[in-house]
Write the structure tokens for this entry.
Amino acid sequence: MHKTPEVFALLESLRIGNLADADVADYGDDELWAREPYRDRRLILKTARPFNAETPPKQQVDHFDTPNELFYVRQHMPVPELDARTHQLQVMVRLGEGERRFQFSLGELEQFPSVTVRAALMCAGNRRSEMNAQVKPVKGLSWAGGAISNAVWGGVRLRDVLLHCGLGDVDPTDLHVILTGADVDATGVNFSTSIPLHMALDPTADILLATQMNGTALPLDHGYPLRAVVPGAAAVRSVKWLESITISKEESPSHWHQKDYRSFNASKTWETADFSTAPPIYHLPVTSYVCEPADGEYVPVRDGHVLLRGYAYSGGGAKIVRVDVSSDRGRSWSEAELQTDSAAPRRHYSWTLWSLQLPVQPRQEDVEIWVKATDSNFNTQPETFENIWNIRGILSNAYHRIHIHLKHET
């Protein structure tokens, strides 16, 4: 399969999400995309090849657990074709004393205790479009607030598999778990990233080797037949179509791990950023979003109130304890009602849905809404994007603000 230099350059830009506005539907050979799965037409398309799409905002708040067909999709390459009957997971331990190898079919993974974990997965670039619009341009897919969804994942704990492979007596300090998927770019490179070994061995981390999503087999777009689910972390760590796990003294050497999803301050530019010294992003900060009504929408006022609905989320197992809403630019705040999962803080990996009947003045025509969330570590969102701006537009978690028009009953 011949690839022109132009196609290679385009694939390289896609690796770091540089295509914010370009039409990428026609690049490369059609053979790469001939077997892509069907996608629900309600998803909000960001790019067609590779397929990236958001969950519609009002669909987010209509379901605590996002239906599989509406779960947002983040792909880097074409979806690989895998067969659950023959799929094998390779586990390799490379710690200097020679390599040890283990192999598991999906049936053999069933020897480990079966567990379920309710967890939201959020792209680190969720809400990037706001940072881009309110401060200055960044590189990456122009996600609004739809690059997060919630599901109940079923499978076995990664920790149990690693203990079975003899990792229980290993000091995890400075060791890494490299997760490699079966999706391959045009240069033959598999998607890969890594997490620290101490995260994988933490019994409260609930990291899964998942085969189910909301009670059914994983859909093709979400990793069939096997994926990692790393709750509380940026979704990039939850590698889909998982085919190998490597325990190593080094982090993943892949472009996606070494040159992306790392934290920089607001003064760094592409010319001054040193990815080798920037810390990888594992846990995500607290955020919130107004899903209904939409920015600029005309909203009916009933009994002197307008209904607001949205989501809030915090990474690392923190639980949302409060969502506050202001209609007077922060001079006063109303506390929203929360719909939340029963998991305890430190193991609370789900999102929280919130709603509020917000009072408005009788003749008020327009209102600006601010929303912020606070988690169980009592972290709250920054007010603006200016000081958290970064070249990749990730961790975009300032107050969400919308402006709506009021339609009073007559």
Observations:
- The helical segments are 5-15, 57-62, 106-109, 128-134, 158-164, 197-201, 255-258.
